[in-house]
């Protein structure tokens, strides 16, 4: 990748303002409102392992919403709720700045908040 990314953390006050701004808009649609999605370390580490082995070059997060047809393992009651999809990417051979989604390994099944909100700080 030719562009250097800024991987420095953002200030917690800025993060809180961003979460608050999202909540103001998202709460206009209370049926789908999801404050956060939690994923277990094992799932993240498995993706990171595949990246370190060179299978993937990054991770794209898609904002999504559950439909009436829930993925296996997602509990009932999540239809209509917002979620995140974890989609690993591979570098495009023709352009270092482009990344191709690998649609064979889409991750999901995080725990949404509301419902599972213990420990949230933002």
Automatic annotation (TrEMBL):
Protein name as catalogued: Uncharacterized protein
Entry superkingdom: Bacteria
């Amino acid at each position: 990748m030719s562009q250097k990314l800024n991987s420095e953390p953002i200030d917690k006050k800025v993060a809180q303002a961003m979460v608050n701004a999202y909540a103001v808009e998202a709460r206009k649609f209370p049926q789908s409102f999801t404050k956060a999605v939690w994923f277990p370390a094992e799932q993240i580490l498995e993706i990171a392992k595949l990246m370190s082995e060179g299978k993937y070059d990054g991770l794209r997060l898609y904002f999504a919403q559950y439909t009436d047809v829930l993925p296996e393992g997602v509990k009932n009651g999540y239809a209509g709720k917002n979620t995140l999809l974890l989609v690993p990417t591979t570098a495009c051979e023709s352009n270092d700045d482009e990344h191709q989604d690998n649609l064979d390994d889409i991750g999901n099944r995080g725990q949404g908040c509301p419902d599972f909100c213990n420990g949230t700080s933002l």
